Amino acid sequence: MTHDQHVVPQVYLKRFATDKMCYVIDGYGKIREKSIEGICYEDDYYEFRSAEGNIVRPNWVENDLLGKVETMYSDFLDELRDALESNDVKRFMRFEDNGLCLITWMVIMLLRSPLVFKLTPDVAAELGIEWDIVQSHNNAILNISALTEYFSRKLYDTHKIVFKKNDTGISFLTGNYPSLILKDSHGELKGYMPLSPKFYVFLVDRDSDMEDYSIIPSKESEVELYNQNMIRNVLHVETDIKHKYIISKDKESLEHYIDFVKKELGK
User: Fold this and answer.
1) What whole-number distance in Å separates Cα of residue 4 and Cα of residue 118?
2) Other beta carbons within 10 Å of 249
3) What is the distance between the alpha carbons of residues 131 and 140, in angstroms, rounded to a whole number?
C-alpha cells in the first residue's frame, strides 16, 4: 500500500525539474534540492475511511482514478508544451476540445488540494449538513469527478484561454497550490496556473478583447508579480509547514526571491 500520496501530481511537477530533481524554498525559508517524489504529498490523503477511521479500499483513488487521469494528461501536457514552444498553440487548442481539456486539468489540480478538502465541512454546514471529519474527507474525494465536470464546462463556456510567455532571466515559479480559480470583485471566476518555467495559462472573460489561445510576452514586472503571488499563496495558506514548497527548475530564480520570502515569513 502506498502511503505518500501527491496532492500535486508528479506529471505536473516534472515540468519544473531536471531528471526529477528540482529546487525548493521550504516553509522554513531554506533553499534545497529535492526529488519531486519527495515533495507535495501527504500521508494517506486519498484514502476512504470507515466511521471508525480505518482505511477501506486502499489506494483505489490513487491508482484507479487519479493515476489513470495523470497517465492520460502526461501526453497532453507534453503536446501542449511542444505547441507553445513552436507557436502552434492555436491549432492545437482547437483540436478535439483541447481547450476544455486544459481547463479540466486546472480544475482537477485545484479540487485535489488540501485547501479545498478543508473547506468541505464549511460548505456542507451552509447547506444545513453536518459532517464529521471522516465524512467530510470521504465526500471531498467522492465529489472530485462531479465538481470537475461542472466547473470545467462552466469556465470553458464563459472564458478564453490566454498564455503568457516568459523570456526574462527569472523563471515562473510554482508551488504546492499551483492552480488558482477565484472570484474577482465582480463575482466572475478567474483562473491561472504556471505550466512550466516559461509559460503561464490564464482564463479571461469571453468579452475580453484578448484573442483566444494567444501567446502574450510577459514583462519582467509581470513575472515578478506572478511569482510573488505564488510565494504568498504557498506561505500564507493554512497547511502544515512541512508541506509548504515554492518550486523552481533553477536555483538562481529562488535565490532571487529569498529575501522576499524571508520578509513574508517575518524573518
Assistant:
1) 19
2) 21
3) 11
In sequence order, what are the beta bridge partners of 51? none
Query: Cα(68)–Cα(74) distance, rounded to whole angstroms?
Result: 10
Q: What is the DSSP string of the chain?
A: ---EEESS-HHHHGGG-BTTEEEEEETTS-EEEEEGGGSSEEETTT-EE-TTS-EESTTIIIIIIIHHHHHHHHHHHHHHHHHHHTT-HHHHHTSTTHHHHHHHHHHHHHHTSHHHHHHHHHHHHHTT----HHHHHHHHHHTHHHHHHHHHHHHHHHEEEEEEE--SSSPPPEESS--EEEE-TTS-EEEEEE-SSSEEEEEEETTSSSPTT-EEEPPHHHHHHHHHHHHHHHHHSSS-GGG-EEEESSHHHHHHHHHHHHHHTT-
- Beta carbons within 8 Å of 62's beta carbon, 6+ residues apart: 2, 5, 46
Residue 257 has pLDDT above 80, yes or no: yes
| CA–CA gap between residue 115 and residue 148 (Å, rounded) | 16
Each residue's pLDDT tens digit, 7-53: 899 999 999 999 999 999 998 999 999 999 999 887 877 888 888 87
* pTM (predicted TM-score): 0.89
Residue 104 has which C-alpha cell?
Answer: 479540466
